[in-house]
């Protein structure tokens, strides 16, 4: 089993299937993520090799490398183990595309919540989050966003440190981190965990940032 890392391994449903069928699970880090960046800066020129197509070929190359290494370790040749790819969200799309692009390298794919039809400038998603949040929580989140944006102009190191992101240099990445963290509460059915304490803090006149 080959899993794209959009989902924490400890919570990965494939663990159950792997144990049942005696399979090994391998999780790869996507190029340009984590420690897998070939460049030190994210300039447009340096990002030219960041694409889903490149990621698919990375996976294909790794799959062959691992299979060959396994064969050498077990002192065998020309053996092809069955490979099954898993993915969630973006990695789910990669799993589906990998199966289509390299059908000879995998016996199947499970693509959960796969983003196979991406929509450019998908503002409807943000609007739905606002509806799901309700007027009070939406207003509070908007106020927090403005406060954070203002703090980035005055003392960006301090405001990033509040969220445990002091070493994150790119302001856009930091703002995305906050937005994505908030969205997760609604996307996975736990809005009260986020909204209740924030709305209560605002009504109580407490600092939101």
TrEMBL record:
Show the GO MF annotations: dipeptidyl-peptidase activity; serine-type exopeptidase activity
User: Which keywords, in A-to-Z order, does the entry hold?
Assistant: Glycoprotein, Hydrolase, Protease, Signal
Question: What's an example Gene Ontology biological process for this entry?
Answer: proteolysis
**Which Gene3D superfamilies does this one have?**
alpha/beta hydrolase (3.40.50.1820)
GO cellular component, alphabetical, reads: vacuole
Pfam families recorded for this chain? Peptidase_S28 (PF05577)
Task: Give the record's family classification.
Answer: Belongs to the peptidase S28 family.
- Protein's name according to its UniProt entry: Serine protease
